[in-house]
Amino acid sequence: MNLYCITEKQNINSFREGYHLECSSLLQAKKEATKRQIFQDTVLTVEHLGQVLSVKTGKKWADVD
User: What gap in Å lies between CA 65 and CA 1, rounded to an integer?
Assistant: First the structure.
């Protein structure tokens, strides 16, 4: 199990505290983040050990290389 930090922001450059999820994969973390998304048109980020792994803008996730 990995610990992921999920953040919902107004835009990609905003700063906001996130919450932590323990998931077995990045895909599972993205699914759970989407379920917990509260506002429309916000940006979701999934981080692991301080590194952004994936960003969701609109309805699509984009993995960060």
Answer: 21
In whole angstroms, what is the distance from residue 36 CA to residue 33 CA?
Answer: 5
Distance CA 51, CA 59 (A): 22
In this prediction, residue 12 carries a pLDDT of 87
Query: Does 65 have pLDDT greater than 90?
Result: no
Maximum pairwise Cα distance, the chain: 30
For residue 50, the one-letter residue type is G
- Which amino acid would we find at residue 40? Q
Q: What is the pTM of this model?
A: 0.90
- The residue written with tokens 């699509």 in the block is 60
Q: Give the C-alpha separation, 8 to 43, whole Å.
A: 6
Question: How far apart (Å, rounded) are the C-alpha atoms in residues 14 and 24?
Answer: 28
